[in-house]
Amino acid sequence: MTAEPNRIVFTDVSKFYGEVLGVNKINLKIGPGITSLVGPNGSGKTTLMNLMTGLIRPTRGEIEVLGTRTDAPETFYSMVGYCTQFDTFPKGVTGFGLIYSVLRLHGRTRREAEEQAWQAIEQVHMTDAAHRRVAAYSKGMRQRIKLALAVAHHPTVLVLDEPLNGLDPMARAESIALFEKLAEEGLFVIISSHILHEVDLMSDCVVMMSNGYVVAEGDIQEVREEMSEHPIGIRVRCDRPALLASRAFSENHVVEVRIEDDGAGVLLRSRSVDQLYALVNRVVLEEALKIEGVTPVDEDVHSVYSYLIGSNGAGRL
Amino acid sequence: MIPAIELDNLSVLFSGRPILKGLSGAFYGRAIGLLGPNGAGKSTLIQTLLGFHPPTRGSARVLGMDVRTQIREIRHAIGYMPENDSFITRMTGIRLVRMMAELSGLPPAEALERAHETLFHLGLGEARYRDVGTYSLGMKQMAKLAVAIVHGPRMLILDEPTNGLDADGRKRMLEIIREIRDSHDTQIILCSHLLRDVEECCDEVVILKEGLLVTHCNLEAERRTNRKFIQVETRGETGVFLTRVEQLGCELAVNGSRRLKMILPETVEVRDLYHVAAETGVQIRRLDYKRDSLQDIFLKAMEGSNGRT
Amino acid sequence: MAVHRRGYHQYDGPRTPERWRFWILARYAFRRVFRLRLVAIFYVICFIPALIASSAVYLSHNVDVLASLFQGERFSDAELVPVTAEFFLFLMTFQASLSVFLTALVGPGLVSPDLTNNALPLYFSRPFSRVEYVLGKFSVLFVLLWLVTGAPMLFIYLLKSSLAGWSWFVDNLHLAFAIVLGSAVWVSLLSLVALASSAWLRWRPAAAGMLFALLFFPTGFGQAANEIMRTGWGSLLNAIVVIGTVWNSLFYIDDADGYARAARALNPMGRVADPIPAWTAWLVVGTVCAVSLLMINRKIRAHEVVR
Amino acid sequence: MSIEQIGVVAGFEMRKFRAGRKWFFPLLLAAAPVSLVSLLLLFDPHPPSNSDITRVFAVMFQTFMLRLMILFGCALVFANLYQGDMVTRTIHFYLLAPVRREVLVAGKYLAGLLITSVLYGASVGIPNILIHSANGQAVAEAHFFGGPGMRELLTYVGIALLACVGYGSVFMLTGFLFKNPAVPAAFVLVWESANVFLPSALQKISVVHYLQSIVPVPIPIGPFAVITAPASVFGSVTGLALFTVAVLIVNGLLMRKAEINYVSD
After folding, report:
1. CATH number belonging to domain A8-224
2. What is the CATH number of domain A231-297?
3. What 8-state DSSP symbol labels residue D195?
4. From 3.50.50.60, 3.40.50.300, 2.60.220.30, 3.40.50.2300, which CATH number describes the B5-223 domain?
5. Which residue of C has its CA nearest to D45?
6. Chain A residues within an 8 Å CB radius of B307
7. Which residues on chain C place their C-beta less than 8 Å from a C-beta of chain B?
8. Does pLDDT of A126 surpass 50?
9. Matching CATH number, B227-291, of 3.30.70.3270, 2.120.10.30, 3.10.310.10, 3.30.70.980
10. Chain segment A99-111, per-residue pLDDT in tens
11. Is the Cβ pair C225, D265 closer than 8 Å?
12. Which end of chain C has fewer CB within 10 Å, C or N?
């Protein structure tokens, strides 16, 4: 089993709760940077994260995070931070008290623990509510404390289960910026989320799951290009769509061309995305077209999601 | 047209701590988005409108009825969908929805008929005969919505309806909310953190911050007046390209590795961008006009009054 | 062929009167209570003692039927089963203990399903007040328990008076009154305590356990206090003594020495101290009901305000 | 390093215990004997002589305090240490900490032990002092400083602490295995109270046997009890210590394989 010190490796991992399927035959290698876990509810995202952080053990297969196994708690958890989906807290504890105690568990001295706890609380802008009881917090404030808890001990692997759930737009933007900063520092940031346009914004690599299987994995554009059964499409809004359409047909890589019903735009589909954009750039210059906009039709996570999962996977809600 | 909600210097205090500080305003929109950072008092405002908390000072009127005196009449006309999980275990979907309809005053036969109709309308097919505890998260949200609309209210208050739903669930929920909004004069108060959802459903937006009403604007109007700017995505080495574009006099803002935001002066045509791109060996991929989205309105509201950025 | 767009439409049809809306909760609760076979069976069992008692009363009136059964056994004309206050008191105590088990079975399941999953906002965002909610839940238990305690004894009373004639009915009227009120007091006390424990202890077995704990632990403590301080006041904590005194004060309303005799019987180890006066028992019942109501009110709120 | 972590876990558990309103019933139990005795002192005009008092206290200690109060008190406190986290779904805060699982078990046990020994040490000691001073100051001083009073008091409190040690580990393990703490508590109560009638071999596998033999004022244990040789003081203490360590080790092993399964009821 090749010990890869710089990857999170899943080899043939399956997890069953009795006969209920958690995840099945997962083979993954996750590198540094932001990796987004995307998939409908119950597709195994949380199970995968619980496996990765050792909260549950796989029924079959091996998991290695940066070369260490998940069942050596004292070394494993000093490098892993997990912001779980559970919205429950020990009774009567305050925000600061919780982070301080956990840091003390991490072996920090009293002064270090206090300092780092306060640092993490500042990062999530919870300084004024830190000394109030967590029971009195709103959902968003609880979420920020969980985030602070996960980053307080400066882990190298950060696993976040729907970290933005319940956060207000300001906090969402700040959290995404924080994640991107941590990813640039070389951390492994694994985020599960349902808000696809946010996933599109922040993630370098996406893992798409459905019914416990990994359906696709890798950079969004590469994944999209691999899906040969759905040729890439772009929509060009310009003054003479018919001209562009005729020029497009002359190229052999173009598969489909459709003039939009309002007559001010054309939809082009082609097997190779580079040649398609090159064609558009060339025609605009040669024919002096007046361009209103050039937008890819199905290149983002939304479309990949609906092609791979929308149709077969999530029949139900 | 009586306003959906009318606030007159409404203040609410929890054991001394001021939560709402003198809100005033009349909101007529068919679908009003209620926004604000955590702890801004959104939930408190909703609960005051529902009569869960008495207002400490000032008054609030819902559909022309005063919260202090006609609360029972208000609750007839309102359908409320609470934020977090809220259902009764060991009860089937149909029985839960039917009981709630009867509690709103519908006679038993009428309640059963409307319960089935609502559950069919929301896509909870055969699951309606199963225990609500066994529902998935998406189905629980739909069950909550069913409970909120089964008694045919004139106004719907939805607290984070799409929270935690997956992509399909959110699409389905937003479709239904829009459909209810367009079925003659049912008004909707949508409280959410997902600005895209609010943008898709609401025509009026109210933004609270630390118990104060910071912004109240009509989205349609806002969309028309905003400055237009271009968002461009490129492929290839953009260093030289950027300098050339600035020389053309475009105001430039770069956010994210490959995404550019720029404002073209009158003299510059889009085609010129392509010229510059061709000369500097850069390929223009995505290019479209963008307006100030709700995100920007929200950020402006936050910065407006000593926002912390 | 027209496409029917079944969209959402408002309802402005007739509305049910608000007075009886609390009964909706009871109607739905009854259906759920009897879904558990164990509860249904136990409920039937609770009627058996009343059945035996009423057949005994009937037989004691038709001595000839009895004679034919035992071929020529000579029977004195005195009533076989004297239907007096003692008879009803004995039956009442028996039925009351059965009703405790019934409450432990049914009680916890009434409020906790609403609380564990935060369903109260669904109730109170409708024209349905907290008073109606508590009244609805209370009426479920009250009806269930009263049918097991008060109703059968009332039936026996009527059976007896139909057999013994109109005069017996008139001069024993105070017994009927005592049956109805006595069982009503006990049943409301039990229901309120069950609702309070179900509201505070969301975990079902804990709520049932609390009910039994409230019956036995104070009793033990009261007895120990009596023992040590050699007074009678400790039995104020003893549920059986308290409700027994309340019943005695009702059944022997006009018969002083009957009351004294029953009171002493109730308080066997009251060696030197005299049994607790009736008004203190009523006071204890009153305070327990009030405290339970306060506890219920504290928990049944639309929004949990956490300081 | 791990000693300090045990201290941190214990501190955190005690703070949770105090804040989580879980102290109500154990405190109620502990207050029972104290209030009973103080009631006696306030209302009883003519208290019995000191020798009767010692006998009354011995009876009260062995029947109510040792078998009922401390047993149920420990059941409530210790079972909650693990189960509390499972039921409130907060066990993941611990499982995610870089702490050896045995340290978690030791920390929780230490917290439980401190709480119960303070509660039940006091609820045994205070009544003893109060009850013996019922006949006025002079008699009390004679009893405690002159006579065997002080030694008796210290032995009683010592036994209470040992009981907490023994019962603590037992209920921590059962709290780990069973979701509903009432079942094992009832089972242990039956096992301990029937201890007198069990064959001597079985008597050794129980906490009360060791404590029974070092009680200062023995009481007649009923006609048909099976008499076994009372263990020496040293024997009983080490026996109990071994018993506790064994149970904690088993607990540690189980904790290593613990997984979260927050199944909604």
Report:
1. 3.40.50.300
2. 3.30.70.100
3. G
4. 3.40.50.300
5. C229
6. 170
7. 6-16, 18, 21, 24-25, 28, 32, 109, 113-114, 116-119, 121-129, 302-303, 305, 307
8. yes
9. 3.30.70.980
10. 998 898 888 888 9
11. no
12. N
Query: Domain-by-domain residue ranges, chain B?
Result: 5-223, 227-291
Nearest chain B alpha carbon to A162: B164
Please state at what angle helix C173-200 crosses helix C130-148, rounded to 10 degrees: 130
Q: Residues in chain A, how many? A: 317
**Of residues C9, C119, C303, nearest to B88 (C-beta):** C119
Please report the number of interchain residue pairs, chain C to chain D, with beta-carbon separation below 8 angstroms.
19
Copy the structure tokens of residue A259. 């003039």
CA dist C134 and C29 (Å) reads 13
Pick from C221, C224, C229: CB nearest D43: C229
One-letter amino acid at D136 equals G
User: Which residues of chain D carry a pLDDT beneath 70?
Assistant: 1, 43-48, 50, 213, 216-232, 261-265
Confidence of residue A315 (pLDDT cuts 50, 70, 90): very low
**Token pair recorded at residue C79:** 């009533």
Hey, where are the domains in chain A?
Answer: 8-224, 231-297
Do C247 and C94 touch, CB atoms closer than 8 A?
no
Cβ-contact B149, B176 below 8 angstroms? no
Q: Name all chains with 3 or more CB-CB pairs below 8 Å to chain B.
A: A, C
Q: How far is A245 from chain C (nearest CA, A)?
A: 37
| Nearest Cβ partner for A293 among B38, B169, B289 | B289
- Measured CA to CA, the distance from residue A236 to residue C105 in angstroms comes to 70
- Dihedral sign for Cα C41, C45, C47, C52, please: positive
Residues from chain C that touch D32, judged by Cβ atoms under 8 A, are: 221
Separation in Å, CA of B180 to nearest CA in chain C: 6
ipTM reported for the complex, 2 dp:
0.74
Does the model's pTM come out above 0.80? no
Residue from D96, D99, D104 whose CB has the most chain A CBs within 10 Å, to mutate: D96
**What is the band of B98 on the pLDDT scale with cuts at 50, 70, 90?**
very high
Check B105 against C303: CB less than 8 A apart: no
Long-range contact list for B257-264, CB < 8 A, 24+ apart? Answer: B258/B233, B258/B234, B259/B231, B259/B232, B259/B233, B260/B231, B260/B232, B260/B233, B260/B234, B261/B229, B261/B230, B261/B231, B261/B232, B261/B290, B262/B229, B262/B230, B262/B232, B263/B227, B263/B228, B263/B229, B263/B230, B264/B230
The distance of B309 to chain A (nearest Cα, Å) reads 8
For residue C209, the chain D residues in CB contact (below 8 A) are 182
By CA distance, what is D93's nearest residue in A?
A102
CB contact under 8 A, D43 and C231: yes
Buried/exposed code over A62-71 (b: 16+ C-beta within 10 A; e: otherwise) = ebbbbeeebe
Please check the confidence at residue A277 and state whether its pLDDT lies above 70. Answer: yes
pLDDT per residue as tens digits for the range B199-216: 888 888 999 988 888 888
Distinct helix (H) and strand (E) counts, chain B: 11, 14
Nearest chain D Cα to A97, which residue? D12
A90/D96 Cβ within 8 A: no
Closest CA to A211 of A52, A24, A15: A24
